[in-house]
Specification:
4-stranded mixed sheet; 10 strands; about 400 residues; 11 helices; alpha+beta; 4-stranded antiparallel sheet
């Protein structure tokens, strides 16, 4: 019988069960639709329905708001398993977490009670509006403004690269409430799709994640009640950065899932493909490529799970570990999927096989929620400030 003292460094049974349940749903309902979702450039409505039916569309929402109450590690596993099947579909739980995390971290109880239950029930999705045409990595340079007018705020401006824009009913929007003060004058608000003055640009034509619409969101004299302010006025920048500390872990999980999907397919293919009278997998060069992929994938997964645990505990070194996991896992996913295409040869370059889609999908994980160049700046600052506890 196993000695309990050696059970400390493995996934708890409940997380193993979360993985198995998610994999079952994805194998049956999500993976078979992944290629069609990609080629049609349409939101995966049927996959969303399947995830809603299994309570996997927003698993992080606490039970007190009618959610599944799955912790940060379990949510990372859910996103990983969905991304293994379809990266576009994995952005449903990932962006629901991104959009709602500011509320969980800083909103009033009234605001959380109003907006979290509809997301938990699958009646609405939540998007996150931070980036702008002239403010990507430089968040403090945002131009969108929110002006207090009595018991309301009036928003004007535009946000760009907003995932699931147009599909989501609710939006966490960051806007300047004290112009000229940079990061010290930014506030966060809940904006509804139905608010007069909210409109959307045409869907972006993207390299990957084509089933997840990315659009601009425009605010033209959008008047919202003052009680939709999330947290404290002019404290929105801190809230945005705290949110990203938590949600970079979900991008790391997405990258791990994409990489796993590519390894699974490529390792099966090379064992079946015959060249020179033997399986391609018999060649040492191919074995080395698979070995490197497996090592990087395993390392990325361990870093992601450690970061997820730190997210759940809100450890002081979460910033370092979240950025490190996101950066490493996404770089690894890009290398792994590129090599998977190579292992399939000419077939890998065609849309008849899934690895080319996985390669295109992997690229965005190196870019969104902070480019990997920015992640390295964050990591170095944490290290040099003594906040990285290695």
């Amino acid at each position: 019988m196993a000695n309990p003292q050696f059970d400390v460094y493995r996934l708890p049974d409940e997380h193993v069960a979360i993985r198995e349940a998610t994999k079952e749903v994805c194998d049956a309902e999500v993976a078979p639709r992944a290629a069609e979702t990609d080629s049609a450039h349409v939101f995966p409505a049927k996959s969303y329905a399947a995830l809603r039916g299994a309570d996997l569309h927003a698993p992080h929402i606490p039970v007190e708001y009618e959610g599944a109450g799955i912790d940060a590690l379990g949510t990372a596993i859910v996103i990983e398993e969905i991304a293994r099947a379809c990266a576009s579909s994995s952005l449903i739980p990932a962006v629901n977490k991104l959009g709602t995390m500011p509320l969980l971290l800083g909103a009033s109880e009234e605001l959380k009670s109003r907006y979290l239950p509809p997301v938990a029930r699958g009646e609405a999705m939540f998007s996150y509006c931070l980036s702008e045409p002239e403010a990507g990595s430089d968040v403090a340079g945002m131009k969108t403004k929110a002006v207090r007018d009595g018991d309301s705020y009036v928003l004007n401006g535009a946000k760009r690269w907003i995932t699931n824009a147009g599909e989501s009913e609710f939006y966490t929007v960051f806007a300047s409430t004290n112009p000229g003060t940079g990061s010290k004058g930014i506030s966060a608000f809940v904006v509804e799709k139905a608010d007069p003055g909210v409109s959307f640009g045409a869907p972006e034509s993207k390299l990957g994640i084509k089933g997840s619409p990315t659009r601009e969101v425009f605010f033209d004299d959008v008047r919202i009640p003052a009680d939709r302010l999330i947290g404290v006025e002019n404290e929105g920048f801190k809230l945005a950065m705290r949110t990203l500390d938590h949600t970079r872990v979900t991008i790391a999980a997405q990258a791990v899932g994409i990489g796993q999907g590519a390894v699974d397919y490529a390792s099966g293919y090379v064992q079946e493909r015959q060249q020179f009278g033997k399986p391609v997998s018999a060649f040492q060069g191919v074995q080395f490529m698979l070995a490197d992929a497996a090592m990087k994938l395993a390392a990325g997964r361990q870093m992601t799970y450690v970061a997820a645990a730190k997210s759940e505990r809100e450890d002081p070194d979460l910033t370092f570990f979240g950025a490190s996991a996101k950066c490493f896992a996404s770089d690894a996913a890009m290398e792994i999927t590129t090599d998977a295409v190579q292992l399939l040869g000419g077939y890998g370059y065609t849309t008849d096989y899934p690895v080319e889609r996985m390669m295109r999908d992997a690229k965005i994980t190196q870019i969104y929620e902070g480019t990997n160049q920015v992640q390295r700046i964050v990591i170095a600052k944490q290290l040099l400030s003594g906040m990285a506890h290695l």
